[in-house]
Automatic annotation (TrEMBL):
Protein name, as recorded: Cerato-platanin
Location within or outside the cell: Secreted
CDD domains from the UniProt entry: DPBB_CEPL-like
Keywords from the named record: Secreted
Length: 125
């Protein structure tokens, strides 16, 4: 498997950000109808792009929850709302929770696994 990294983008940390600006907008598994903004998600601010959402047309992993771990830190849980283009790209708040600050910008070779949605404070279907 390819090594997966995690980085951050302030867009995912903006509670007013429209869900229509991410891959999980109005597709088959889109989230915009129920959660118009990122801040409406119970998971917020632990949201972002994930490796398993390629694009709007392949959105079946929208709303899935992922446990991300880096060495010597507690794991975080990220709700997938966008394409991470092969990596995780999350809010600055979540990145700081994971690494202690935003200084690194990107952390390579993370461990990650799909977990139950309730880990992301989301209702379990």
């Amino acid at each position: 498997a390819m090594a997966v990294s995690i980085s951050y983008d302030p867009v995912y940390g903006n509670p007013g950000q429209s869900m229509n600006t991410v891959a999980c907008s109005n597709g088959k598994f889109g989230l915009a109808a129920k959660y118009p903004t990122l801040g409406d998600l119970p998971a917020f601010p632990n949201v972002g792009g994930i490796p398993d959402i390629p694009d709007w047309n392949n959105d079946q992993n929208c709303g899935t929850c992922w446990k991300v771990t880096v060495p010597n830190r507690n794991p975080i849980f990220i709700l997938g709302v966008d394409s991470g283009k092969g990596n995780f790209n999350v809010s600055p708040q979540a990145f700081t929770e994971l690494t202690g600050s935003t200084d690194a910008g990107r952390v390579n070779d993370i461990q990650y696994e799909k977990v139950s949605a309730d880990n992301c404070k989301m209702p379990v279907a």
